[in-house]
Amino acid sequence: MSLAIKSQGLRMTVNGEPVELLVQPHETLLQVLRERLDLTGVKEGCGEGACGACTVLVDGLARRACLTLALEADGCSVLTVEGLADDQGLSIEQQAFIEAGAVQCGFCTPGMLLASHHLLEQNPRPDEAEIRRHLSGHICRCTGYAKIVEAVSNAAARKRGEEPS
Amino acid sequence: MQLPPMDYLAPADLSEALAAKARLGDEAVWLAGGTDLLPRAKQGIAAARTVISLKHLAPELSGVRVQDGRITIGALTTLKAAGEHPELSRRLPGLRDALASIGAETLQQSVGTVGGNLCADTRCLYLNQSPAWRAGLAPCFKLGGEVCHPGGASADRCRSVCQSDGAVMLMALQAEAQVASPQGQRTVALDELYTGKGETPLALQADELLTGVSLELGDDPLGTAYHKLALRGALDYPLLSAAAALWLRDGVVSRVRVALGAVYAAPLVLIDAVAPLVGQEPTPERLAQAARKAGGHAEPFLVDNVGADLQWRKDMVRVVVARALEQAVQRAKGGA
Predict the structure, then answer these.
(1) What residue segments make up the domains of chain B, in order of their start?
(2) I need a surface site. Which of A116, B34, B230, B284 has the fewest CB within 10 A?
(3) What is the pLDDT of residues B219-263, one digit of tens each?
(4) Partners of residue B34 in chain A, C-beta under 8 Å
(5) Is A71 in contact with B8 (Cβ distance < 8 A)?
């Protein structure tokens, strides 16, 4: 049955760079990003959508890369954790995570950062309940979440040009 | 985790999609957000030789419309867009709550869809597992075998359950599904859409696509409520849930529907338990009486198949039904 299945062309913009490659229909966005484009910041945790570690932004919205066929992202703009930093250094969210001690083993961090970035793009002044709700699909087995919530709150303040309280 | 090899089509519009499905029949499955299909495909329990992506149909099949006392939701409306639609959320807070309880925030905006939730397959602790986990057990009825592991030796059919939050609330609201095929459109009541058979839970033909769902709000003040018990506040399917839709006229119940989730292969509608409420004032005693009856009526349907203590689930039917009814009454009276 697999003999008849052909690779298909995939074009997308990844972290601002245009990308064009042939993929098998059953390749997930996670596999393409990690194994074909060497973007290993995208982590595979559970592989079934329950942990959030593989979260990337596709056209500005959060998606589980492990539950997204790569071909579903054809024509889309994809942002991974590698695309958060720029020439000037780490993003405000990344810096806030470091300063708050929100990173321990680091495996959930790329997904947490992209979910946080996504939240702050939509809501520059989230309260603690909104931060917790937005990150509720992201599992961290080290920190107990308090430092992560604090980091997002601090990043929100910095993005508004205020000093974190 | 790897997906098995599959072919992929992304038709440009509804008619092209329906033609492709008609050609491929059961060989092909629809792909909306993928949060139900892809985990099952990875586990080897979804037959997905070809997936037909609906991504280009989103403009055609998305949106919430309120007109002439009727609410219509396009199948590809995301859970977030539906739940946060101002008119829907004001008139149907129970549906808003049910949709908001699905998955998690970062799954709601771009992937999870209302239609996908309605068509989510039934689930069982012994089924939704990796092939390695299942290798130690004989194939069950759902996988073409002759046994139901939680059902025990006397079970003669699949006892997997409907854990779709949206389906349970929409069933209580007596919603209808719009279904398209190359032959045209048809409307089917959710009561008919769900077969109650775990092996084949949806009464859709191989060439059909669920394109939307709609319901009548009714003339009397309506209260809706959804109560769900799950292990965590996010990312979890219900261990048990209850949805109530209740209409009041002059302080008296004019109509009431209650449905349970995670009990049966379809949302389980409780008819006899709540019928005595009609024509009566919904006093706390009458609501408690209905909830007690609901617990008794649901008990024979429950088996130990979702990973929570069976006796606890049996005991909690009364509790979730009471909570849903009480909140529906409050909302019908104009409370939050």
Answers:
(1) 1-58, 62-118+161-332
(2) B284
(3) 999 999 999 999 999 999 999 999 999 999 999 999 999 999 999
(4) 67-69, 72
(5) yes
